[in-house]
Amino acid sequence: MRFPRLFAPDAGAVAGIVMVAGMVMVASGCGPSTTSSGPFENGTVRVATAFYPIEEIVRAVGGAEVSVVDLVPPGESAHDYEPTPQQVTDLQSADVVFYLGSGFQPSVEKAIASLPSGVRKIDLLASVPLIATSPQLAGTDGQTEGEVLGDGNDPHVWLSPKNMQLMVAAVQESLTEVPGIDAAAVATGATNYVATLSSLDTTFSTGLASCASRVIVTSHRAFGYLAAAYDLTQLAISGISPAEEPSAKTLEAVAKAARADKVTTIFFENNLPADLSRTIAREIGADTAVLDPVETLSSDQITLHATYASVMEQNLAALVKGLGCR
């Protein structure tokens, strides 16, 4: 749930503000706030998050102890999002900022790096084991995504429920260190959310245990951690950044490998053009299906109260069908 902004009442508007504060208490489960600090509610730990999966972790763990502002608006790509000048100004009043480093969101990282020392900056990539990127096929362009991400590591860590659990622990530890926060409430929030993620992990392990194919062909290299967690092989049309344009040579090599692996479904992402995926699917006589990278929720998903777990369950259903699992 996103928190509305409240402004300090003047003498003629006290009754109206009291009514609004009461509405906020009911809607958000937080205590009343009589003043505002930018987009954050007063009286709670002010947390900014770089994009949706981190936002969900912080809200689940922090509960009523935190006031959360997420930088990336619904439906927008997290990779290339550029914070507005107002967002950069608002970040300065945060107590903690959680993000993923290594060049995943260059403009967001630049804004975070410019914040004053009083704002705690937590790179959650430090809490999970990383997969190094490398050329995936002989005969392709031979470029590594290290040219996009300074250290050559894949940043899409949240697409493994196991990694999400590790990030929950890191968020819990960081929030617990903030003076005045209710550590017991944070611990309860973390425990409950980890239980959800653990159940999701079990569901994935069971659903993908026995499949006719274990190769997933994706529109860009976002699903490496999911593949590694469940004994799949990812074959990506473009690299770590969806903005990378694969050459004709790369497309030919991907199609050749997909045909050799008897791939029957080419996966594309709901927030990216599907042209290249459909081209390869036509080339090898395969179907297409959607995998959601869960970088953000669309307005429709928010209306339907989608969560990380519900979107990932939809991904699992697509994988089970596309890989011929039973």
Can you give keywords for this protein?
alpha/beta, single chain, 3 domains, globular, Rossmann fold, disordered N terminus, 4-stranded parallel β-sheet, ZnuA-like, 326 residues, 13% strand
Give an account of the 3D structure.
It is a single chain. The chain is 40% helix and 13% strand. It has 326 residues and is an alpha/beta fold. The chain folds into three domains: 40 residues, no CATH class; 161 residues, Nitrogenase molybdenum iron protein domain (Rossmann fold, 3-Layer(aba) Sandwich), CATH 3.40.50; 115 residues, Rossmann fold. Belongs to the bacterial solute-binding protein 9 family. One of its GO terms (biological process) is metal ion transport.
Topology of helices and strands:
Layout: H1 14-28, E1 36-37, E2 40-41, E3 45-49, H2 52-62, E4 66-70, H3 85-91, E5 96-99, H4 106-113, E6 120-123, H5 161-176, H6 183-207, E7 215-220, H7 224-229, E8 233-238, H8 248-260, E9 265-269, H9 275-284, E10 287-291, H10 299-303, H11 308-322
Parallel strand pairs: 3-4, 3-5, 5-6, 7-8, 7-9, 9-10
Antiparallel strand pairs: 1-2
Helix pairs in contact: 2-5, 2-6, 5-6, 6-11, 8-9
Pfam family, one: ZnuA
Keywords: Signal, Transport
InterPro entries: AdhesinB, Bact_metal-bind_prot9, Lipoprotein_PsaA-like, ZnuA-like
